[in-house]
Amino acid sequence: MRTTLAQMPFLGRFIFVGMLSAGAVGAVVGLIVGLHAYPPTAWFAVFELGIPAAVVGALLGLASGLSVRGVRHIRGS
After folding, report:
1. What is d(CA 6, CA 1) in angstroms, rounded to the nearest whole number?
2. Is residue 11 part of a domain?
3. pTM of the model
4. Which of 5, 30, 32, 34 is at a distance of 20 to 30 A from 51, taking alpha carbons?
5. 7, exposed or middle or buried, with CB in 10 Å at 0-12, 13-18, 19+?
6. Distance, CA of 3 to chain centre
7. How many domains are there within the chain?
8. Does 56 fall in a domain?
9. Is residue 8 part of a domain?
């Protein structure tokens, strides 16, 4: 996994990590909420919360990647 991330473009790496981490958290929360609300359809809640969380995570990853790139540009690194 480490070599795969190292080969990715700079912004792609931030987007991927943000999407993966937020999507995983959203999927777990969706499963917990789904099991609490109505267990037979709990797996749909995994997608209902996991996919939007992954999109938000990708956007946050993009924003943080652009911030890091901007700071590096300003500092001249």
Report:
1. 9
2. no
3. 0.88
4. 5
5. exposed
6. 19
7. 1
8. yes
9. no
Q: Which tokens in the block code for residue 4?
A: 């795969």
pLDDT for the residue 32: 96
Structure tokens given for 24: 């995983």
| pLDDT the model gives residue 3 | 84
| Residue length of the chain | 77
**Amino acid (1-letter code) at residue 49:** L
Structural domain includes residue 44: yes
| Tokens found for residue 15 | 């987007």
The 10 Å CB-count burial string (b at 16+, else e) for 27-60 is beebbeebeeeeeeebeebbebbbeebbeebbeb
Domain that includes residue 44, residue range: 21-71
* pLDDT value of position 56: 98
